[in-house]
Design goal:
Blueprint lengths: L2 E10 L2 E11 L4 E5 L6 H8 L7 E6 L10 H4 E4 L11 H11 L4 H10 L15 H13 L5 E5 L7 H16 L3 E6 L2 H7 L2 E6 L2 E7 H8 L2 E6 L3 H10 L4 E5 L2 E5 L3 H11 L5 E6 L2 H9 L11
Parallel strand pairs: 3-7, 3-8, 5-6, 6-7
Antiparallel strand pairs: 1-2, 1-4, 8-9, 10-12, 10-13, 11-12
The protein binds adenosine-5'-triphosphate (ATP).
The site of adenosine-5'-triphosphate (ATP) has 13 residues, from β2 and α1.
Family: Belongs to the ABC transporter superfamily.
Protein name: ATP-binding cassette domain-containing protein
Keywords: ATP-binding, Nucleotide-binding, Transport
Length: about 300
């Protein structure tokens, strides 16, 4: 089932939080929804879930706005604010209340507690939970109806390394079963290891919508690192060939815009022995910061 936004806009008084966003999210893959703080990610997800109304445009699931879905709990599950649970209800009762509302039985509650690794905390009250446990409970709630579409706002926040691995492999396994997975983050490093596709927004507007591989190809540069005791000789050969390079250490050069076979071939022709020849890609986080710098609303200063 596809999620589609078309001309989606949300204004709060004079402030435009989401500004004419159009994109689609496909089933069978994990789509990362990325943007700096205040970019409009949560506002977009809230419109998708029918919690707030768009000022203009629409966002639909399988072609329909959420209010028109026949079985909302079986169609879409969401984790927005993991701490927004009744503080006095045990984890079990919290899930049971949602299960009843969705017409589901107790068996599903037990299964979800197990899946989220919360079986031992079933009778604990959430006010004793860590943020990671809240996230697990939130995911268990989102998955109660075994929905086709899963929407997660910053799901990795507060999880320990084991929790992060668990959340990622769960998303991967659901995507491989054909589910539609949309998850937001303001960290490119998270996206790099989790997402197949990326939707990047800044100041409410679309900045990029592509596969992660295409994003990397389009927005990051690479250099060839070459290490040799004959650095000067290699530098002369590169210079004669009109190639751009930078000395990094007494035995190391970074060659821009080249591929390793070309640098290796040149070294072989000169009879130079290489100790290392590697392609280094610019960190994706750097590309993200460059792309979103002009639209970043909140920026700290280094002391
Ligand atoms: N209810 C509201 N009233 C007025 N402005 C709002 C409201 N909700 C959000 N905004 C503003 O809209 C913009 C987008 O906010 P939103 O929370 O959607 O961003 P976000 O990308 O989710 O950010 P973060 O990563 O910090 O959670 C921000 O400038 C925010 O201050």
């Amino acid at each position: 089932m596809c999620i589609r936004a078309h001309g989606l806009t949300k204004r709060y008084g004079g402030k435009t939080a989401v500004d004419g966003l159009s994109f689609s999210v496909q089933p069978g893959v994990i789509t990362g929804f990325l943007g700096p703080n205040g970019a409009g990610k949560s506002t977009t997800l809230r419109m998708l879930l029918g919690l707030i109304r768009p000022t203009q445009g629409a966002i639909t699931i399988g072609g329909r706005p959420i209010a028109e879905l026949e079985h909302p709990a079986r169609t879409i599950g969401a984790l927005l604010d993991a701490r927004a649970v009744h503080p006095q209800r045990t984890a079990y009762d919290h899930l049971l209340a949602f299960a009843h509302a969705a017409g589901l039985g107790k068996a599903r509650v037990d299964k979800m507690l197990d899946l989220a690794g919360l079986s031992n905390a079933a009778t604990s009250r959430p006010d004793q939970f860590s943020l990671g446990m809240y996230q697990r409970l939130g995911l268990a709630t989102a998955l109660l109806g075994d929905p086709d579409v899963l929407v997660l706002d910053e799901p990795l926040n507060g999880l320990d390394p084991e929790g992060i691995r668990w959340m990622r492999s769960l998303m991967r396994s659901l995507a491989s079963k054909g589910r539609t997975i949309l998850f937001s983050s303001h960290l490119m490093s998270e996206m790099e290891i989790t997402a197949d596709n990326l939707i990047v927004i800044g100041n409410g507007r679309l900045i990029a919508d592509s596969s992660l591989a295409e994003f990397i190809k389009a927005h990051t540069s690479t250099v060839v690192l070459v290490r040799t005791a004959a650095r000067e000789q290699l530098a002369r050969a590169l210079s004669d060939a009109g190639m751009r390079f930078k000395a990094i250490a007494s035995d190391t050069l970074h060659v821009a815009g080249a591929d390793p076979s070309c640098v290796g071939g040149m070294a072989a022709k000169e009879g130079i022995t290489l100790d290392e020849l590697t392609t280094i890609r610019e960190p994706l986080e750097k590309a993200f910061l460059r792309l979103t710098r002009s639209v970043t609303q909140y920026e700290g200063q280094l002391a």
